[in-house]
Design a protein that fits this description.
Elements (H helix, E strand, L loop, with lengths): L2 H12 L5 H4 L36 E5 L8 E9 L2 E4 L14 E4 L12 E10 L13 E5 L13 E2 L12 E5 L15 E8 L1 H4 L13 E5 L15 E5 L6 E9 L10 E5 L4 H7 L4 H5 L1
Parallel strand pairs: 7-12
Antiparallel strand pairs: 1-2, 1-4, 2-3, 3-6, 4-5, 5-6, 8-9, 8-11, 9-10, 10-13, 11-12, 12-13
């Protein structure tokens, strides 16, 4: 990781008033899981599901709606500062009052979040001004929490992919979420699911027998040609994560946006590129790393 990337990480993690003393100067680390050990549990997937280990993805959050029966889970998200969550704009299409939503951080099993979990409310919702529900363009949003979280082994900050990261070269990429494990299912997963996926060339993803021109330049596609492994309903807003090629740290390179069905062949998950919207993210948080550096 070059010095500029490191500076950006420090800025995002540390220069929000009152947060750096809680969450330190690092992001993208997983204290509960060793990344020096090959991270491959076989054919793991969200659709069809294998449970993630406790604390495996410590920046994962569950956005919950109290009117939803059962586990109340609505969408996923990523903690990128002690009081900011990155998620998808379309998660809030049908939400009239964000004040009734809860954000659960540090949980793996929703029915038993455990002592490491914390709950916050949403102080402010910032959806991209050019987001359009009709064609899911600019599908990205930020949530400002009502109170900063306290970081712990179960709660860590995610690294947002900055302009210096060569995303296309990253190979160890994963998705995670509490969404449904079968297309058409109505019940979300109680236990956080994880899956290893491959980044798919956007031109291929946009070809005639794939998504036929519906993929925007700021989208990423991830999954497999044959399908079988994918995000599904309820995983929206959650992260597409890739490990840095030269470190144990992880980058959130995408936000789960949409897909045609779940785990279908030549219909992989479509994600909003965090790198493309990096400047927008910093601007909404009131950060400017380059100005700060000078």
């Amino acid at each position: 990781m070059n010095w500029l990337g490191l500076l950006v990480l420090l800025t995002v993690a540390g220069l929000v008033q009152g947060t750096w003393d809680n969450c330190g100067w690092t992001c993208g680390l997983r204290p509960m899981v060793s990344d020096s050990i090959p991270h491959d549990y076989g054919l793991t997937r969200i659709v069809g599901g294998t449970d993630a280990k406790s604390g495996a993805w410590p920046w994962m959050v569950s956005i919950q709606h109290p009117w939803i029966p059962g586990l109340e889970h609505w969408c996923g998200g990523s903690l990128i500062a002690a009081d900011w969550v990155l998620t998808a704009a379309h998660c809030f299409d049908k939400i009239e009052k964000i004040s009734i939503l809860n954000v659960v951080i540090g949980a793996t099993q929703l029915s038993q979040p455990g002592p490491g979990a914390q709950v916050r409310q949403i102080k402010k919702l910032l959806r991209h001004k050019n987001y359009k529900r009709s064609d899911i363009t600019n599908d990205i949003a930020l949530l400002e929490l009502n109170d900063p979280v306290e970081c712990s082994p179960y709660i860590q900050l995610a690294c947002v992919a900055d302009p210096t990261v060569r995303v296309s070269e990253l190979q160890n990429c994963w998705i995670a979420g509490w969404g449904t494990t079968t297309e058409g299912d109505e019940d979300v997963s109680d236990h956080l699911q994880e899956a290893k996926v491959q980044l798919i060339d956007v031109q291929l993803c946009n070809s005639s027998d794939w998504y036929a021109g519906k993929i925007h330049p700021y989208n990423l596609c991830a999954g497999y040609l044959e399908g079988n492994i994918d995000t599904c309903q309820g995983d929206s807003g959650g992260p597409l994560m890739c490990q840095d090629k030269n470190a144990d740290s992880w980058w959130v390179v995408g936000v789960t946006s949409w897909g045609r069905g779940c785990a279908r062949a030549k219909q992989p998950g479509v994600y909003t590129s965090t790198q493309h919207f990096y400047d927008w993210i910093l601007a909404q948080m009131g950060l400017n790393p380059f100005r700060t550096a000078s």
